[in-house]
Backbone:
């Protein structure tokens, strides 16, 4: 049995991996962390950091956002979390652009700091909390882990696919502006989680409330949304404050808005259009003070044609954001698997730490229509319950899944194997004399420009599209171009 004293002993010196290509900054940060009592491992680039991560029991990673060779702290964080989702990652950078912080946090960073770090007390707290949470998870032996929800707001927005990046970009811009939003998407894609994210990014001080518009009948729904006065209908013994009043200053999420009864549609239109509403059975005009975010898996344009949804209300529901299904973001599935596994471990008291590549292959080739994140959560729950160790293997996949899928082969790996077979068995004398870092720099200096130019030629010199194809952030791609002296004009001369 793990006692509180033994747990404190286990994490007496949490291990922090600090990654920063600025040597002066790296030394200063490391010195301060060691003075706080932490064990510190230093790295100047992503590959060196990965080597240290594999050879040390790292509790927390403190990652510079902009790293050499066009890589980023966020990309390294994704790699770390795929290997061990319990490791807390913190991003720090000299770039004060708010979009950098948003990108880091939406990919799962625990916190974000600007250089030079000013709030060392907060950083110390983040590291200690990360170490305690990580060893606390590993030390549980009674299965009494607290239950958590099916997914966090970060889960649904995880990934580097163009589809989910577009959603993050839209949310970042619309969240602070208070506009009404309509979220569209298949069942299970996480629309209400996106709505929660919008609320959290909005800065609104009022509460968040989610109402399922298909769960109540006509009279009950109108009362639930707008309230009623005493005697408004049989059983109305006292005044009731509806969701529009309860969420004043906050966000009201209307899930499955396509199921909203006609009378409720009419009152909702007045509340959005005129900025006021009245309780059932009352005459007092109350100001609309909440933000409305609606969500549906229905085709509302078709519902308008069928006469079951008001065209004027559809037009008033504001900006539309489509949350993509898993079938359109398969490259994000490995990241989502590990995020959902972390939650499954907490729900079931399991300690699953890794997943077979074959399992990921099956999940990436499965048709997720009608399942999406909710279906993935249920599938991983089932596999975790039946797992006997800390690893999810192919035999744990239900037969219904294996029957419908086949593992996905990665062409890039096949290509690398073919390339390696053509390489010489021994290094030339000049390369033999180099240090590891000198050798790596020489290889990168030769191959990275070829890769960048190849991507640019594919897109006709479009840097944004080339960065997307390379799964890099555009500033990092542009920085790599500058490092290797690549310009768009050079492409026509090669």
Residues:
């Amino acid at each position: 049995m793990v006692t509180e004293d033994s747990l404190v002993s286990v994490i007496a010196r949490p291990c922090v991996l600090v990654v920063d290509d600025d040597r002066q900054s790296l030394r200063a940060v490391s010195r301060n962390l060691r003075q706080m009592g932490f064990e510190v491992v230093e790295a100047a680039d992503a590959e060196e950091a990965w080597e240290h991560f594999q050879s040390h029991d790292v509790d927390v990673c403190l990652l510079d956002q902009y790293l050499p060779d066009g890589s980023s702290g966020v990309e390294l964080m994704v790699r770390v979390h795929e290997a061990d989702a319990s490791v807390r990652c913190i991003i720090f950078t000299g770039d004060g652009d708010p979009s950098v912080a948003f990108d880091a946090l939406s990919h799962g960073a625990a916190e974000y700091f600007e250089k030079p770090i000013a709030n060392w007390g907060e950083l110390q707290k983040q590291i200690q909390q990360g170490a305690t949470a990580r060893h606390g998870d590993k030390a549980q032996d009674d299965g009494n882990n607290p239950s958590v929800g099916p997914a966090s707001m970060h889960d649904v927005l995880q990934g580097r696919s163009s589809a989910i990046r577009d959603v993050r970009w839209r949310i970042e811009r619309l969240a602070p502006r208070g506009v009404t939003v309509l979220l569209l998407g298949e069942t299970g894609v996480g629309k209400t989680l996106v709505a929660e994210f919008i609320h959290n990014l909005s800065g609104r001080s009022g509460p968040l409330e989610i109402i399922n518009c298909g769960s109540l009948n006509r009279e009950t729904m109108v009362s639930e949304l707008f309230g009623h006065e005493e005697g408004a209908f049989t059983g109305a013994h006292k005044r009731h404050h509806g969701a529009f009043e309860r969420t004043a200053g906050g966000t009201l999420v209307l899930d499955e808005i396509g199921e909203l009864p006609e009378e409720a549609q009419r009152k909702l239109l007045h509340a959005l259009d005129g900025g006021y509403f009245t309780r059932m059975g009352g005459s007092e005009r109350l100001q609309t003070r909440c933000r409305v975010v609606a969500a549906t898996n229905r085709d509302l344009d078709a519902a308008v044609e069928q006469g079951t949804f008001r065209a004027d209300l559809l037009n008033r529901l504001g900006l539309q954001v489509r949350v993509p299904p898993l079938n359109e973001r398969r490259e994000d599935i490995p990241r989502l698997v590990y995020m959902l596994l972390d939650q499954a471990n907490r729900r079931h008291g399991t300690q699953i730490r890794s997943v077979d590549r074959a399992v990921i292959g099956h999940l990436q080739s499965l048709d997720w229509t009608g399942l999406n994140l909710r279906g993935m959560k249920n599938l991983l729950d089932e596999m975790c319950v039946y797992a006997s160790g800390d690893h999810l293997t192919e035999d744990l996949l239900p037969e219904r899944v294996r029957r419908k899928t086949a593992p996905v082969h990665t062409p890039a790996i096949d290509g690398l194997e073919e390339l390696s077979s053509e390489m010489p068995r021994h290094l030339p004398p000049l390369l033999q004399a180099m240090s590891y870092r000198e050798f790596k720099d020489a290889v990168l200096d030769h191959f990275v420009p070829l890769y960048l130019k190849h991507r640019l030629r594919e897109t006709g010199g479009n840097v944004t599209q080339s960065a997307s194809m390379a799964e890099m952030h555009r500033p990092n791609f542009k920085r790599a171009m500058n490092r290797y002296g690549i310009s768009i004009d050079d492409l026509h001369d090669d």
